[in-house]
Write a structure and sequence with these properties.
The complex is a heterodimer of chains A (225) and B (306).
Chain A lengths: L1 H7 L1 H29 L4 H33 L3 H4 L6 H38 L8 H32 L2 H21 L3 H26 L7
Helix pairs in contact in A: 1-2, 2-3, 2-5, 3-5, 3-6, 3-7, 5-6, 6-7, 6-8
Chain B lengths: L6 E12 L2 E12 L3 E6 L5 H8 L7 E6 L2 E2 L3 H5 L1 E4 L11 H11 L5 H10 L15 H13 L5 E5 L7 H18 L2 E5 L3 H7 L2 E6 L2 E7 H7 L3 E6 L2 H10 L5 E3 L5 E3 L5 H10 L4 E7 L3 H11 L4
Parallel strand pairs in B: 3-8, 3-9, 6-7, 7-8
Antiparallel strand pairs in B: 1-2, 1-4, 4-5, 9-10, 11-13, 11-14, 12-13
Helix pairs in contact in B: 4-5
Classes of the chains: A mainly alpha (225), B alpha/beta (306).
Chain lengths: 225, 306
Amino acid sequence: MRLEARKIKIHRLILFAIPITLVLIYATFVSIYGINQTHASSFAAIIKMMTATVWDFYFFYTAYLVSKIIVEEYVNCTVMILFTYSIPRRRIFFAKILSTSVISLTCQAVSQTICFIFLLTMDRRFSLVNGFITRVDYIEWTQYVLIDLLAAAASVLFLSAIAVIRKSSASVFLYGITFLFVYQVIISQINEFSILWPCYTALFLGCAFFSTVSIHRWMNRLTAK
Amino acid sequence: MLKLNSLVIEGKHVSKKFGSTTALSGLDIHVPSGSIYGLIGLNGAGKSTLMKILVGLEDMDDGSLRMFDQPGITSKGLDATGSIIEYPYFYERLTGLENLKLHAAYMGFHDKKRIDEVLEQVDLTIDAGRRVSTYSLGMRQRLAIARAILTYPKLLILDEPTNALDPEGIRNMRELFKRINRSFGTTILISSHILSEMEHLADWIGILDRHAIVQERPMAEIRKLNRSYLSIVTDNAKKSCIILERLGISDFAVQENNSIRIYEKTDSSAIAKALVTGGVSLYEMAQDARTLEDYFLELVHQGESH
């Protein structure tokens, strides 16, 4: 993983999360006003909307990371150097997926926290949200963040598999939209955590299986065709 | 003659197909330990495919391979091998130095002074701090050579390593490979289109034709079979032969077209004078320097003739 970090200049990728977070803060602020225009907002609704929006942004960030860390190795043919080392190929890909997961999930978790703190701070100053935040809201936020991180981990596995199969950044983003759609369908229709947790856990396990089989099958093919 | 009792690479009936296209067909290869083995062949003969199989980038469909006296490609074998396969690929956003450091880290090699040493050997010390994306093809080739030799490999597999180098660069690399071979006993398997370079560099030659190795020979033996000669064309071949024998020349042969090939090193002006004085009309006299290229092309186009 340390070698992956050196290759991709990890500090630049992490810094990229800063403008994403700023945009998310802006989006949160605007969305609250948007909700207030049609009906009085509540912390529950805001928290669900905000955490899903952060996830949506970081999904594309994850797709970008997968392109940099996996697709570029094939496109630039540096995989031909990697595969001449005595390091098992599965270990190489495990390190890549782990690097992508750690960067993406950590940045997302930090952005989620910053946006939540922003929400609380702005509400204290401008009374943006209808009602007061309660302990239940804090628990709900924590659960949504953890579920989103589980979905994010699933997206890393799914996108990594696509990257190894197709060896193209365009395919990673295109197939990724399918995954985004699945995430949105689940999160928008279901409110009960007792159903959300099994849904996303199943999604994660499915993606883990797909990723394991696909990478094993396709990693040795050095070109897309 | 080199003894074949120690082989670094031994391949038997190695075959590889890509779809319906045959790349290798029943190829046998024997690379003696400590030798510089030159692999020559026409485009599409299978040189790069063979080299990719040897470094684990491709799997063979059939046959057996032994490297470092172990069956197949092993992790220890890969650790002991340096290679350049096809185009020299690098991490473009990293500098030359960073690429070498990364390679050393992947190989578990921790001698920092060695990186400076190889950069000096390939004349890239000044440019090491620049991104590889700014390098010319020649510089990339030199950096690839530096990467291949960085970890003191026991085996170097080099696929046309002197492509894009200028004549001075080619000579420098030739001297470097010879030095590595002599100093460290590194076995070098090298392919090149520049047959004159192979002639100067290789101890053994493997000729690849129609997806298999048709001949493996020590370079010294090829030189013996491929001798240069002085060709003379006269009006009377028989009389010319008598004159040559009187001059003490015995190593010559009359060709089908009545020209005479003299394989001994002789004074051509003395021969010309003797022939003319002896009443023979001399129509043509030319020194024919046979090269590896002549040998190779003859073999490839006419089949094995020796």
